[in-house]
Records
---
Amino acid sequence: MIKKHDICRVASLEPLSKDTYALTLKVNGDMLKYFRPGQFAHIRLPHAGEHLLRRPISVNTIDREAETMRFAFLIQGEGTRRLSQCRPGDELDILAPLGQGFRVKESHQKIWLVGGGIGIAPLLSLRDTVPGREYTAFLGYKSREYAYELKEFEGFCKAVHVTSDDGSIGEKNFVTEALRRELAKEKPDVILSCGPLPMFRSLKRVWEEDGRDVETQVSMEQHMGCGTGGCYTCTCMVAGAMKRVCMDGPVFDIREVEL
Ligand code: FES
């Protein structure tokens, strides 16, 4: 039986960029055994008080040897602010790994990663869990001060295309437009993507116009309640049916998910 609920100790918490932190937890080995990139944890906030709901945070990287799971998150409200105040040795109640994650097949040798903002974080877990593929990354940041983990992507990707809203890092452009330009030159075996809904909408336009033959998987960010399929807070329409992002997703085929 895979252990999915545990009290885990904070190993470290470090700032990555403006309002962005990396939280590393010491976890039990069971949680890492069948981990797939794109899966997430549902974390109960420390000293929750009125903030009783857990927060879904996707897994940034795992280390099976050290038995750690790392999460990168952006402060977006009181809950994530509290998380940013954790100290090594603190204990957090977590459910993990949850969701279905990306479906990477043997035929996916040339993989393009498309991430926006904090949605870039889960894409880094491909580096260690699916090695030996040819990766290209398209990373869209708000600005230079919000950029994080760029060096990590440069370390394992053949090429990294960086964009920002204000041009302070990389080119001033939408990340999906950088993708469009490269799709005109060559096609990957699969596109794996994570980011906010507006990015997915423009990704779908680019996919429809320039990449219809390319399998494209998107990892949805959604408000969640239970995180385990019971409350139906996190639904979205997929192939005409209501699906739960926490259980059936968060990763869906771009052809099927309503954006
Ligand atoms: Fe409760 Fe998904 S968060 S069903």
Note: The mean pLDDT is 94.
---
Amino acid sequence: MSSITRALAYSQANQNRFVAELIDLLRIPSISTDPAYSDQVTQTADWLVDHLKGLGVEDAEAIRTKGHPIVVGSITVDPVCPTVLVYGHYDVQPPDPLDLWTSPPFEPVIQEGVLYARGACDDKGQMFMHLKALECWMQTAGTPPVNLKFILEGEEESGSASLPGFIESHREELSADVVVISDSSLFAPGIPSITYGLRGMTYVEITLTGPDRDLHSGTYGGAIHNPIHALAALIAGMHDEGHRITIDGFYDRVRPLSDDERRAMSALPFDAVAWAQEVGVRASLTESGYSVLEASTSRPTLDCNGIWGGYIGDGAKTVLPSKASAKISMRLVPDQDPNEIAELMEAWLRARVPESIQLEFRMVHGAQPVLIDRQSDAMAAASRALEEVYARAPYFTRIGGSIPVVADFKHLLGLDSVLMGFGLDSDAIHSPNEHFGLDRFAEGIDAILRFHTHYAAG
Ligand code: BES
Ligand code: ZN
């Protein structure tokens, strides 16, 4: 029997235990954005170190940072073999609103072959496939066919603040030929894809202050500019009737979609009506001139993520509030720069804030957009691996989400990433009832094993 056949058979024979281990990992609420969970984030890093050591990664360790720990480890087979750097993130999004979960987010359950838990898909479940692929090699061939390095992050969902510095100061330890990441999606059930484009991000928080304290709206209403009204007007003014963003200079660096890309995208089997219905809206809203797929993956956006101010408790309170705030994220495409976009946004706001109101502006985090070269040995190996598992060639697609580290690997280490994801848009990542089909967990491990084999064969 060939070594890949034995590794695949081992995976199949051990699926139940693999899933049981994943469930242990999912039980730890590693919510990176909420300081109340920082012990649990560290506990998850330690769990991964123990697990990696158990698989034979003797040098595995959780390295402390100013934020959450970064887990690293490596298996060197032979310096002449290519080296694959595996990136994943073990932190998760907050689970709220909790009342919309049908089972508690950190008490994983399996229903009809689907595993429900926060992080099941994004990204603990997908990250864990790479650890289990390593186990398959170690327990059959004794070593993988490539050198493997792991870098598992605990801050991805909150902006990866510690990661660029860590990469810069660990260049040697992280040197590799390619990065592989499973933190994205299949194009559709049974239809594999390789992601070659990710959007970037500028995330800002703004607070408007009018009067220096909350006022009685009877005594003062009619003669004071209400900061909630000012904020609402500003936000409403951020798009025009064509749903284009009005921030001056926002589109200046946007690389237009090529005719080839637009043609390839329009040939994908994508049903925009069904897509809208699936999320419960009657119609989509896109920047004029762009299809739903183009607008949601390859054009820049601006979204208000949260807005607050004044009285939001039960009943009525007649208050003219002192403050109003909003969180706003902008998804960027090449060649927009996150810091420059923040500056343009601040300038746009400052030019429009009413005189009687003060603006506080804060950039929360940023990420560079990326496009990855599709012509490489690693892409060819991934494409072949996915074709073998799904009996059809993968599409090459751009996605609208962001994985900040991909640009860091490129700019700091010169490394391209292969984004081979097994999620589905319908897996409810970042939402209540996040889930991951166990069929895709098994397929992912198979594809990773096959990728190692093809990449090693060069
Ligand atoms: N796994 C997602 C990226 C993703 C989103 C892939 C949608 C496929 C479809 C990742 O964990 C994520 O959510 N990233 C954040 C990054 C942000 C905080 C800079 C995102 O895109 O919001
Ligand atoms: Zn993720």
Note: The CA atoms of residues 18 and 132 lie 7 Å apart.
---
Amino acid sequence: MDWNSLKAAALGCKKCRLCETRNTVVFGEGNPSARVMFIGEGPGKTEDETGRPFVGRAGELLTRIIENGMGLARKDVYIANIVKCRPTVEQKGFKDRPPDPEETSACSPYLIRQIQLIAPEAIVTLGNPSTRFLLQTSTGITKMRGIWSHYNGIPVMPTYHPSYVLRNGGEKSPLRRDVWDDIKKVLEKLNLPIPG
Ligand code: URA
């Protein structure tokens, strides 16, 4: 499936129950030929309202990582999630939750095809669900982060999810240092300069 057909299929998708409560499908955004791809878990409230990935509080932190930490623009990279519609506790629309296995297996073919089409030189998985899904592991992010793994030959760098960083100390979180260390490894892999 090419990019346009894939997007059209995702926008009309009814493969799992998340379609019943979504406002928008959050397909992903950025450069379809990006050198680096970021993968989160699923849209939150703001993402569901706007149709764009990572635009809420966690998104603001991710944007700062990309722009200030990496010296790139959001439009240079590609940002996607494992599931394209917002999962909430009992689908009541209040509290976000990670996608369940049924939702993940219904939706993941979209992500898998996105990765094939983009063919990035590196993938950054944000948090447990995307790391576990892509690397087919049950090991937690604390052990996985900072260490290169591979998905179909593509180097994968797992790091903490920005929401997790915000929940654990926010702007002053010591986890930010870890994320920065992980991101530096990605810059090195891509032969990109490390911003001073
Ligand atoms: N968290 C995610 O994992 N993805 C988003 O798009 C927003 C928040």
Note: The chain has one domain: 3-189.
